[in-house]
Structures are given as structure tokens and as C-alpha cells.
Design goal:
Keywords: 4Fe-4S, Cytoplasm, Iron, Iron-sulfur, Kinase, Metal-binding, Transferase, Two-component regulatory system
Structural class: alpha+beta
Catalytic activity: ATP + protein L-histidine = ADP + protein N-phospho-L-histidine
GO molecular function: 4 iron, 4 sulfur cluster binding; metal ion binding; phosphorelay sensor kinase activity; protein dimerization activity
Strand content: 15-25%
Shape: globular
Order of helices and strands: HHHEHEEHEE
Subcellular location: Cytoplasm
CATH topology of the largest domain: Heat Shock Protein 90
Number of strands: 5
Pfam families: HATPase_c, HisKA_3
CATH class of the largest domain: Alpha Beta
Length: about 200
């Protein structure tokens, strides 16, 4: 595809992702709330309504998977602006200071979407599990690769590795599917550093 055709294609895919989230996602959320309200009002129906709620949650997870495979709306203005906005949002919502080091011109083309999703998941994991008071994010181009590093000063990852949660496994899967590499450095009480490298195409 030419650059113009690719831009139009990405714009269409972002619109689809936004519409799925805003329309279908909100309907599924409302349906789940209605189901919970019915279960409160009609105790005799709690078992079948619980099964219905499980199916609604499965549908929401499936929708999230579809949306995650589409280009993030934030990338419409480029990777650097998207990363700045994500880091600022993280700090505002979590109250955790986050230092950003971003190489001028850092962008990986097809890797941008994966890097952005991995950054989102990494910051989300820090909020849920790390008990950190400081975070740093670095993005740089080096040796024909786009490198993302996310560090925190939290409690560290569980040992052994088999006890680690699905969030890190999801990150590893995304990186692997993009042909990238994930390096994890962590020790109890000494925080965690995730370094991800993606080939620039």
C-alpha cells in the first residue's frame, strides 16, 4: 500500500475501534448493570442471571480483544504525542510521578501500535501490583530497533516466575507476536524494569 492508502486504512480502523467501544461496549456495560439489578430484585433468578452475566463478560472480553487488534485512536497524532498523553494520564490518575525520556524522531512504523499497547499494559500493571512511588518510561531508536523501557521502584515481581500474573504474560505474547524481544529485571523490594525491543520496518 502507498503511504496515503495506508493512512486512510488506519483512519478507518481507528474509527471502527472507536465505534465498537462507544456503541457496542456501552450496550454490553448497560446490559451487565441491568442483569445485576434484576438479580438483586429477584433472588430466585440469581443462578440463571449469573450465567447470563458470565456470557456478557465473555462478550466484553472478546470485544476488547478485537479493539486491541485495531490501531489505537491516540496514534492518529503520532507515537510521540500518544506516549506523552498516556504518561500524563497515568500520573494524573495514579498520583505516581512518571519521568519520560523520548528520543526525538523515535517511531517504529508498524511497531508503534504494539509498543503503545504494551506501554498501556505495563503502566496498568504498575498501578495494580507494584506499590511504586516512582516510574520512568524511555523510548529510543537503536540498532534498527525501537526500544521501550518501563521502570518502577515497587515491590518487584513474584518469585519464582511461574507465580507471575497474566498481565506480564500478555505483554510477552504481544512482544513475541511482533517479532520483538522482552527482557525482565526484577528483585523483591527493588522494583522492576521491562525492556522491549521491536524491529523497525
Amino acid at each position: 500500500l502507498s503511504s496515503g492508502q495506508q493512512a486512510l486504512r488506519d483512519a478507518d480502523r481507528r474509527r471502527i475501534a472507536r465505534d465498537l467501544h462507544d456503541d457496542l461496549g456501552q450496550h454490553l456495560l448497560a446490559l451487565g448493570l441491568d442483569t445485576a439489578a434484576l438479580a438483586q430484585r429477584h433472588p430466585a433468578l440469581r443462578c440463571p442471571l449469573a450465567e447470563l452475566d458470565q456470557r456478557i463478560q465473555q462478550a466484553r472480553r472478546a470485544l476488547r480483544t478485537i479493539i486491541d487488534d485495531l490501531p489505537p485512536e491516540a496514534l492518529a497524532q503520532g507515537l510521540q504525542d500518544a506516549v506523552r498523553q498516556q504518561v500524563a494520564l497515568f500520573s494524573r490518575l495514579s498520583g505516581i510521578p512518571c519521568r519520560l525520556e523520548l528520543d526525538a524522531g523515535a517511531a517504529g512504523g508498524t511497531a508503534d501500535g504494539v509498543l503503545y499497547r504494551v506501554l498501556q499494559e505495563s503502566l496498568s500493571n504498575i498501578v495494580r501490583h507494584a506499590q511504586a512511588s516512582e516510574v520512568s518510561v524511555g523510548i529510543r531508536c537503536q540498532d534498527r530497533s525501537l526500544k521501550l523501557t518501563v521502570r518502577d521502584n515497587g515491590v518487584g515481581l513474584p518469585q519464582p516466575a511461574a507465580r507471575r500474573g497474566s498481565g506480564l504474560r500478555g505483554i510477552a505474547q504481544r512482544v513475541d507476536e511482533a517479532g520483538g524481544r522482552l527482557d525482565v529485571a526484577s528483585a523483591p523490594g527493588l522494583g522492576t524494569a521491562l525492556t522491549m525491543s521491536f524491529p523497525i520496518q
